[in-house]
Amino acid sequence: MAPEDDQEFNVRCENRFEGAMSADAFGIVCCMYAFSHLSFTANGQIAKVYARSYHALREYAMDHCEVSAIVAATD
Questions:
Q1: Four-point Cα dihedral 63, 39, 29, 13, nearest 10
Q2: Is 42 helix (H, G, I), strand (E, B) or coil?
Q3: pTM for the full model?
Q4: pLDDT at 66 over 90
Q5: By C-alpha distance, which of 59, 4, 53 is closest to 31?
Q6: Domain residue spans in the chain?
Q7: Residue 24: Cβ-neighbour burial (10 angstroms; 0-12, 13-18, 19+)
C-alpha cells in the first residue's frame, strides 16, 4: 500500500530517521512498521503470518531504488 501521489514525503521516524522518500518507499516503510508491530502484539499463528509478511516485504525492499532510506527508516 502506498499513497497515490507523485510528491516526496518528508518522513520522521521513532529511530531518529529524517528524510524524504517517494510514495512507494513511504508505503513500504509504513507497512513494515505495521507488520512489525502486529507481529509482536498478536497471538498465535497470526503473529507468525505478520512476521513472515514483514520479512518478505523487507526482502522486496532490498531491490528498491530507495533501499538506503527504507532501511534507515526501519532499522
A1: -130
A2: coil
A3: 0.92
A4: yes
A5: 53
A6: 9-74
A7: middle
